[in-house]
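INFO batch 0412 | record 1 of 1 | parsing
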Amino acid sequence: MYQYKHETIVEADAESTFAWFEHEGSFRRLMPPWEVAEEVRADESLEVGSQRVFRFPMGPIKMTWVAEHTGYEPPHFFSDTMVKGPFWSWNHDHHLVEENGITRVVDEVTYQVPFGPFGNLVDRVLGGRLVRRRLSQMFTARELRLQRDMGQHAKFSEIQRKRILVAGSSGMIGTQLIAFLDTGGHDVWRLVRRPVKEGAKELQWNPSAGILDVSKLEGFDAIIHLGGEGIGDKRWSKKRKKMIRDSRVDSTSLLSEVISNLRQKPEVFILASAIGWYGDRGDEELDEESDSGEGFLPSICEDWESAASQVKDCGVRTIFLRSGIVLSGTGGALGKMLLPFKMGAGGPMGGGKQWMSWISLDDEIYAIHHLLMSKRSRGVYNLTAPSPSRQKTFAKTLGKVLGRPAFAPLPGFIVRILFGEMGVKLTLESQKALPTRLIEDGYEFLHPNLEVALTDTLGAWRDI
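INFO prediction complete | emitting C-alpha cells
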C-alpha cells in the first residue's frame, strides 16, 4: 500500500468550503484541466452510498472510474473509495480543518498500483516516481481550482444567487462555466437540442426549426448563449459555412425574439461572439471601438451580434463576448496543437509573425462570471489576455512548457493544402485584440502571462 497526502489552504470557513464540494459541479472543476474525461453520472450529494462515474482514455481504450462515498460528516470530513477503475485499490479521505475562518483541506489517499505484485515491482524499480508525480500534478490542479473558484465567488458573495439558463452547455466553455456557476450556488439550467434527461435541469429547443416555448423562459435572471457549430472542426465547404452561420444567427434571432416577448424578462443576456469580428488586421491594436473587418468571419460575427438587437432594444442588459483563442488542454486550438508539439514537430506557421490573441479557459470563465454579476457591465468586451503573442513566440513558449523543440516550420501553402480556407483564416490571419473594457470594468486577470497560462493549463509545473 502507498500513501499520498496534500494540503490546501482556503480563505473561507469550513462550512462554505464543504458546501463547494457538495455541489455537483465541483467534480468537473476538480478534474485536471488537461484530462480528457467524460462525466457519466454524478449523484447530488456526498452522502454515504452516492457515486460519481466518469470515463477517460487510457491508450486506445476508455477506462471507467466509479467512486463511491463511504464517509460523510459535514462540514469536516467526507471520503470515497474506488469501486471500479485503473488502480488495484484507492481510498480517498478529505479532512476540512478550520482555524480563525481559514480552512485547511487535507487530502489523504491510500492506494495500490495496478497489476498487484507486478505493479508494485515496476513501481519500486521506477522509485514510485510515475504515480506520485501524476498524483502531485492532479492535486496541485485541484488546489488551484478550489482556491481560485472560492476567491471568485467571494467577490460577489453579497449579491443574490441567480437562476441562469445556458445554451451551448456541452461545449468546452459551457461545460466548465456551468460547473463553476453551480459551485457558486446559482440555479443553473441547460437549453438543449436533444431530448431532456429525466430529472435534469434542462429545457429543449429546436433553433433550426424555430421552436422554443416562450413560457419555459419565464423567471430566469440571466440567459447565456454559447452555442454554434464548431468553426475549426472541419474544412469549410459552402454547406459547412452555411451551417456555421445559421447555427449562430438563427438560434440568436430565436432567443432574441422570445426574450423580447417575455412578461418577466431576464436581467442580463450574454452572447458569445469572437474576435473574428475584426478580420485580418496585421499589427493594428484592436479594442472594442475598432471597426469590423472584411470576409467570412467578420460577416458572421456582425450578423451574429445584430441578431440580438431585439433583446438590447427592449432594455435587457446585453453583453457580447468577443473571445480570442481559449487555451484548453482538452480541446480548441491548443488541443489540436499538442500532439505535434509533444512529438517535437511544432513550430512557426506561415512565418509566425501573425498575432494570436489568447485567453486561458479559467480567465474566460471568470470574466463571464464577472460580467454576469457586475450590473454596470454591458455592450462589447474582448475576452483576450492583455498580452497577445506573435505565433512564432506562442510556438516557442509552448515548446518550452512541454520541454520540446519548437522550430519545425509549417509554410502557409501547406496550411492551405491541409486545411483549406478554414486553416488559413484561423491560423495565418492576425488579430492583436486587447481587453480594454474588461480591464476598465475591474476584471483582474488570473493569467496575463502566456507561459504561466500554458503551464497551469497543461499541469507542467517544474517544482512538484
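INFO post-check: The longest helix spans residues 129-154.
INFO record closed
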